[in-house]
């Protein structure tokens, strides 16, 4: 559940609105700039030509592109956040994520843009109070999942059975007037359907939470979003790589929060190298971020927060 800020806007809603407007404004030119590359190729995923086969054990790559703006998406990152509404008046937060994915098996890959894949994924997402001398740990979320992903041309889907547990930092527990620690642990089935429409990606679905603590944690979460990833190159650095624009908005609403929405918006630049014949080169990005809504940090899921910031994100 989850970045150097230049200025603190009066409301993250402003950044969210601007991100959506920017997505719409850039759409026409982005559509014209597209090449014939598939969605997985453009997002740094995809199937190597040598693995286009009816069955591959322990495969490389994937057929489902990771979500850009989802705070719980499997990716590694280092972000700096300025929070407007936060726990215990914490304003400056360092947010860190470490993730990895391991392919177990893939079936039906008769082309580079289709197939069904089963993988194992894991991640740790942690937040630190940068206003303290020891950078106190605020919260840590641990996730492990078995995503089943599939793709047929521009359509892709993911069914992910995962476990999450969340833990509050010891230093935070020693402070006065902080919320009490809760034992947060649950399993969930997350289902998403995604459509690549040239430069634009649209996705939607939801999840069902079960085997949960606390027992009053509600079951249902709705989830959707959009991404803009033009194929056009903004800057080229020769053999080192090239720079492209990237923007995304992710929206969630949960039964636990009476369907109050959380909006995460990210926009910035993605850096990678040209496709060389096997897997696309791994990419990384610098993204400006905005978030408003129920906290994505596990220990504070009952609270609402707002923040803006900037982070470096690294594709799996």
Helix content: under 10%
- CATH 4th-level superfamily: Phospholipase A1
What is the CATH top level name?
Mainly Beta
- Strands of the biggest beta sheet: in what spatial order? 2-3-4-5-6-7-8-9-11-12-13-14
- First-residue to last-residue Cα separation: 18 Å
What does the average pLDDT come to? 86
Question: How large is the count of helical segments?
Answer: 3
Counting structural domains, the number is: 1
Taken from the alpha-carbon principal axes, the silhouette is globular
Number of strands: 14
Q: What is the CATH topology?
A: Outer membrane phospholipase (ompla), Chain C
CATH architecture annotation: Beta Barrel
Helix/strand order? HHEEEEEEHEEEEEEEE
> Any idea what the radius of gyration is?
19 Å
Structural class: mainly beta
Largest sheet: 12 strands, antiparallel, barrel
The proportion of strand residues reads over 45%
Poorly predicted parts: 1-12, 26-36
3D structure, described in words:
This protein has 316 residues and is mainly beta. The chain has a single domain (12-314), classed as Outer membrane phospholipase (ompla), Chain C. Helix content is 9%, strand content 51%. The protein has a twelve-stranded antiparallel barrel. The radius of gyration is 19 Å and the shape is globular. The relative contact order is 0.21. Mean pLDDT is 86; it is low at 1-12 and 26-36.
């Amino acid at each position: 559940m989850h970045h150097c800020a230049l200025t603190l806007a009066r409301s993250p809603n402003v950044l969210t609105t601007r991100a959506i407007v920017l997505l719409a404004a850039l759409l026409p030119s982005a559509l014209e700039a597209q090449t014939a590359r598939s969605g997985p190729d453009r997002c740094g995923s995809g199937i190597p030509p040598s693995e286009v086969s009816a069955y591959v054990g322990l495969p490389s790559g994937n057929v489902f592109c990771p979500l850009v703006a989802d705070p719980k998406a499997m990716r590694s990152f280092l972000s700096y956040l300025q929070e407007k509404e936060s726990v215990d008046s914490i304003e400056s937060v360092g947010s860190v994520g470490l993730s990895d994915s391991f392919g177990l098996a893939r079936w039906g890959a008769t082309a580079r843009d289709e197939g069904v894949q089963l993988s194992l994924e894991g991640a740790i997402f942690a937040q630190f109070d940068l206003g303290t001398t020891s950078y106190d740990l605020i919260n840590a979320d641990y996730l492990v999942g078995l995503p089943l992903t599939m793709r047929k041309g521009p359509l892709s889907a993911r069914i992910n059975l995962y476990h999450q547990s969340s833990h509050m930092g010891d230093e935070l527990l020693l402070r006065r007037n902080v919320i009490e620690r809760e034992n947060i642990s649950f399993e969930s089935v997350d289902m998403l359907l995604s459509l690549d429409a040239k430069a634009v990606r649209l996705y939607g679905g939801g999840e069902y939470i079960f085997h949960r603590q606390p027992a009053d944690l509600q079951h249902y979460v709705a989830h959707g979003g959009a991404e803009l990833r033009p194929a056009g190159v903004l800057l080229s650095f020769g053999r080192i790589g090239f720079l492209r624009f990237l923007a995304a908005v992710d929206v969630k609403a949960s039964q636990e929060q009476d369907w109050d929405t959380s909006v995460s918006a990210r926009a910035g630049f993605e850096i990678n190298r040209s496709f060389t014949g096997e897997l696309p080169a791994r990419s990384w990005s610098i993204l400006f971020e905005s978030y408003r809504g129920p906290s994505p940090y596990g220990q504070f899921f009952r609270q609402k927060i707002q923040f803006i910031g900037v982070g470096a994100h690294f594709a799996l």
